[in-house]
Amino acid sequence: MIDIYSWATPNGHKVHIMLEELALPYTVHAVDIGAGDQFKPEFLAISPNNKIPAIVDHDGPGGQPIALFESGTILIYLAEKTGKFLPADPAQRYATLQWLMFQMGGLGPMLGQAHHFRIYAPEQIEYAVNRYTNEARRLYGVMEKQLGKHPYLAGDDYTIADIAAFPWTRSWKNQGIDLDSFPNVSAWQQRINARPAVQRGVEVLVSARKALTNDKAREVLFGATQYAQR
């Protein structure tokens, strides 16, 4: 059994989708990041960076429990545990891992910044909006070129690279993206969104999520609370 501590965000949905794709038994524990659940000692014990998601696999290596944080690491772990969605062939494996790192190091952080400065920032800062919107478009362009050559990011097969990237592209409107300008990305999204496991995964914890409409939640996520030493 796997315990997943998560919330309905792109990073959370990566692991929700992976667990659904693998049909692994799991129990989901809501970590309400707007209420500050991510700062509770019991969560920090398994995710010291106070970020979701995190998992505890009670049947880890050698049959012993293992706790993991960082969504990319969790995807690699689950892929290696089951032998799925991460090719064994070295060339294909590294092709997958490089596109996973593309998401972890670029796509996620930059789309997150575009989303923040366009939607959540208390004041509109033109320089920030332009910088991150332009970078979002550049990254979509990188995917567009790759997906013009292959049906999936790492090649002909659906892998953890696609599982990682897909949730971040679901909010393309909020990132200032015109998806009609990226037809290959749009077709890739449709292919992935048609998968039943993906449809189940993106619904996990959605009913618990609340809109960020109150000052307390915004302060928890974006204010001094976020930066306190713990």
TrEMBL record:
Gene3D superfamilies in alphabetical order: 1.20.1050.10, Glutaredoxin
Residues of the GST C-terminal domain: 89-220
A Pfam family the protein falls into: GST_C
Domain annotation GST N-terminal: ranges: 1-86
PROSITE patterns attached to this UniProt entry: GST_CTER, GST_NTER
PANTHER family hit by this protein: DISULFIDE-BOND OXIDOREDUCTASE YFCG, GLUTATHIONE S-TRANSFERASE-RELATED
Record-given protein name: GST-like protein
Source organism per UniProt: Mycetohabitans endofungorum
